[in-house]
Amino acid sequence: MMDHQANEPGASENEVSPNVNCLEGKRCPNCGSYGPFEVVVSMRVLLYDNGSDDAEDGSIEYDDSALAMCPACRYEGKFGEFNIP
Question: What is the tens place of the pLDDT at every residue in 12-60?
C-alpha cells in the first residue's frame, strides 16, 4: 500500500481532514486533495467609474451549488460534490 499525505492524490478515506475552517468537510472527489479549491463566489462591492472598493457588507457568499475547481487535478463540479461522505 502506498503512503500518501492527507492532501495528495490517492489519500485514503480513513485519513483525518486537516481542514478545520472554511474547507472543513471538503475534499476533491477526484484526487482526494483537501484543497485549496477555486470557488465562484458572490461579493457586494461599491462600484465606481474607476474601480471598486469593498462595500460595508463586503463578505463573500457561496454555497454547495457554487462552481468549484481543484487545482491539483483540475476537476470541476459543484462545491457540494466536494463534501466528504
Answer: 555 688 999 989 999 999 999 999 999 999 988 888 998 888 777 768 8
Pairing mode, strands 42-43 and 60-61:
antiparallel
- pTM listed for this prediction: 0.71
CA–CA gap between residue 17 and residue 4 (Å, rounded) = 13
Q: Which residues pair with 78 in a beta bridge?
A: 67
CA dihedral 71, 34, 54, 67 (to 10 degrees): 60
Domain extent listing, the chain: 1-85
SS3 81: helix
Q: Which grid cell sits at 4?
A: 500518501
